[in-house]
Amino acid sequence: MGEYMILVVLEHDGQRLRKGALEAISRARQLSALGAIAGVVIGENTQAVAQEAAQYLSTVYAAEVGPYTPEKWAEAAYAAAQKSGARVVVASGGRQSRTWTARLAYKMKAGLLEDTLETSTDGQHIIGVRYSFLNRVTEKQKAALPVVFTAKPNTTPLAEPAGSSGVVEALEVGRPPTVEVLERLSEQKKGVSLTEATVVVTGGRGLGSPEAFAGVEELASTLGAAVGATRAVVDAGWRPYSEQVGQTGKTVQPNLYIALAVSGAVQHQAGMNKSKYIVAVNKDAEAPIFKIADYGIVGDVHQVLPALIDAAKKL
Ligand code: FAD
């Protein structure tokens, strides 16, 4: 057993740490009264990413296990927790971590707190706050150590480097996985990542056609924003599923969310109603989106959108 109490599983893209990793480090530091913090980089090209991570943490394990599978991630995180002696494992929340954190918690016989907004400790437990019931309720949960928890993206300030460089250690991961990935098709990403964007411009069915999304894209690229879509738009085949915001799509929490011809159904709201500022354009003054919007424009999107693009270009 090692000397660490907290282990951060550091999300990365094979080149660099992702924003979620820096949020997870911040969360771990908030619990530093429990003990020291180590990190683990799992996957491919882990040595290089671990070097970057060593600017933030005194020990970083590099677990070179190849392409992602939930089994391998759980196994590697477990090996790192064993080696470091960690009783608390922190990771960034999201679709990917949801596939391996339960496996890890089972291996560690640990409690699991998913998608926490904030976390604290009394020395024996982790107390986490999270949304429930489509973000309408917040609930506080308490789990006795050991605990695995995830931090909901965009809820925590990014960690700053520690000022001194830590050490990187290669980590052997024992058991080979029983499931082998034969082929992987990754989504073609262009522009800003939806879940990491500080500005999101979302188009709804009221735009009338897939072609009308050219205006949404133009406004988004002018503002350095990511493009989002409603499920109605995705189901119609106008936009890819990767852009869907909502209960069965992605959860976003940007500083600014611009909803263009989006009705604001409760299932859509579940993915965006925690945005800092919401601006809505809809021709129906009774559209539910206006109930949660900070600024609303009642009008035809085909007239308002070009004016928004012009205004954005002058910023
Ligand atoms: P609509 O509801 O058709 O709204 C279009 C809006 O555009 C209207 O408000 C209209 O007034 C306005 N409009 C029309 N023309 C113009 C114009 N010229 N100018 C300005 N405004 C105009 N939805 C999601 O988005 N994400 C999800 O993850 C999701 N998950 C779901 C899960 C379940 C289990 C279920 C049952 C539903 C889910 N839905 C989800 C679907 C959701 O209920 C709505 O059907 C969907 O969000 C509607 O999309 P929309 O706002 O684009 O379309």
How would you sum up this structure, described in words?
Helix 3 crosses helix 4 and helix 5 runs parallel beside helix 9 (301-313). The protein has helices spanning 19-30, 46-53, 70-84, 95-108, 213-223, 231-235, 266-269, 289-292, 301-313, and strands at 6-9, 37-43, 59-64, 88-92, 111-116, 118-121, 125-132, 137-144, 147-151, 167-170, 199-203, 226-229, 256-260, 277-282, 295-298. The protein is built from nine helices and 15 strands. The radius of gyration is 21 Å and the shape is elongated. The model has no long low-confidence stretch (mean pLDDT 94). The longest helix has 15 residues, at 70-84. It has 315 residues and is α/β, with parallel strands linked by helices. Bound molecules: flavin-adenine dinucleotide. Flavin-adenine dinucleotide (FAD) binds next to helix 6, helix 7, strand 14 and helix 9.
